Amino acid sequence: MPWQDQLVAEHQKRRENNLWRTRYEVGSPQSVEIRREGKSFLNFTSNDYLGLAGHPRLAEASALAARKWGAGTGASHLVSGHQSPHHALEEELAEFVGAEDALLFSTGYMANLAIPTAFLDRGDLLVQDKLNHASLIDSGLLGRADFKRFRHCDTKHAEKLLVDSKARRNMISTDGVFSMDGNIAPLAELNALAKDHDALLVVDDAHGFGTLGRNGRGSTNLSGLKIKDNLIMMGTLGKALGSFGAFVAGDRIYIDHLKQSARSYIYTTALPATVVEATRAALRLTKEAAQERQHLKNLIAYFRKEATTLRLPLMDSETAIQPLLLGSESAALAASKQLEKDGIWVTAIRPPTVPKGTARLRICLSSNHDFNHINQLIESLTSITIEAENVEA
Ligand SMILES: *Cc1c(COP(=O)(O)O)cnc(C)c1O
To answer: How far apart are CA 273 and CA 63, in angstroms?
Structure first.
């Protein structure tokens, strides 16, 4: 069959199975009120947890940097693209999370690809939580090490995978906050396990960095852990920080090793200084955002209380990610479409992003929401309650 015909058939099947993905053209900055194809929506889809993506201070920092540094870096970090803003941001990030050193990456995806491939080789062992982010899963598939997955948040299962390991090096990797579920990994247990088995624990804190722990230091801080010894963290800068990019933080020996061998660090152009300066402004705002974090907590508690009263299929999450488990792809899509009619945007998350039978509405809260926004969401959700209860998870 010719290529085109094969793809047409494949796409047809995707549509029939309610798995076709759609993107929308957005005509306004990221915000809780957003324009989508000419229509206004109350937005519960973004990872902009502190409302920084459209913050004037970030835009201003970026504009100033454009005048000072130009638009592009023109080279990778190890050639001539590592400019003073990058260097300063790395120092600030390391200091903030309490690590010896930090290294900037262009995206979280690239940082995650780098870690196991730089540290592990044939015969080594990588164990990951089953519900880890796609980029972590991909890093396991890309690397040469044996790659095993443990049941979600099941430290005992992870231990079982490690006890028999004859590997020279073992690595455990987990999301700090699970991106599609919103729950927090058992980090203290995993850290103890890592210590017992001389493994390196890698925490992907894309959703915890900026929102959890003291001053937003993240899920490791919340769990009472230090970014040192056998623990390294990856944080992203495009979520709570409202900018773009990512970093890995940990003892200098690990960071030095990444500089030497992380292919997704070495073979790519350094981030523009405009982005880096926006991130530096975001980091300053994040440290001071105690009120915003408290407000976000209050919104989460309020949403959960109201949703519980309505017996909505809440998942067990205490973070800004509050999914409603609907089960089938069609139920999730239908619910999202119904909310759309009320001018509310919530994404339906379907396989393969989540396991089959666990399609959901992923509601993301931001400190820029107010209680009235939650009331609007809840009111609109009441109309889909009945359908949600009829679907088996
Ligand atoms: C978003 C996300 C990433 C990827 O980060 P980007 O900077 O957007 O590439 C990695 N891990 C998790 C858990 C994420 O949610």
So the answer is: 10
Specify the residue for token string 């790395």.
90
For the Cβ of 246 lying below 6 angstroms from any atom of ligand 1, the answer is yes
Both tokens assigned to 109? 């995806």
Give me the catalytic one of 77, 133, 239, 373: 239
Q: What is the 3-state secondary structure (H, E, C) of 173-226?
A: EEECECCCCCCECCHHHHHHHHHHCCEEEEEECCCCCCCCCHHHCCHHHHCCCC
* pLDDT of residue 247 exceeding 90: yes
What residue type is assigned to position 146 of the chain? D
207 catalytic residue (yes or no):
yes
Ramachandran angles phi, psi of 281, nearest 5°: -65, -40
The interaxial angle of helices 84-97 and 273-287, nearest 10 deg, is: 30
- Please tell me the residue having the least CA distance from ligand 1 atom 10: 108
d(CA 87, CA 93): 10
Atom of ligand 1 at shortest range from CA of 133: 13
pLDDT higher than 50, residue 25: yes
**Predicted TM-score (pTM) of this structure:** 0.96
pLDDT in tens, 147-194: 999 999 999 999 999 998 999 999 999 999 999 999 999 999 999 999
Ligand 1 pocket check for 139: Cβ under 6 Å: no
Per the CB < 8 A criterion, the answer to whether 173 and 144 are in contact is no
Within 8 A by CB and 6+ apart from 363, the residues are 44, 303, 321, 322, 323, 324, 346, 377
Tens digit of each residue's pLDDT (9 = 90 or more) over 210-219: 999 999 999 9
Burial track 36-52 (b if 16+ CB lie within 10 A, e otherwise)? beeeebbbbbbbbbbbb
User: Which has the closest alpha carbon to 260: 74, 114, 83, 88?
Assistant: 114
- Say whether pLDDT at 280 is over 80: yes
Ligand 1: residue whose CA is nearest its atom 14: 206
DSSP of 14-66: HHHTT-------B-S-SSSEEEETTEEEEE-----TTS-TT-HHHHHHHHHHH
Triad 330, 137, 106: Cα angle to 5°: 105
Q: Between the CA of residue 214 and those of 140, 219, 239, 289, what are the distances in Å?
A: 31, 9, 18, 11
- One-letter amino acid of 47: N
SS3 150: strand
User: Which atom number of ligand 1 is nearest to the Cα of residue 238?
Assistant: 7
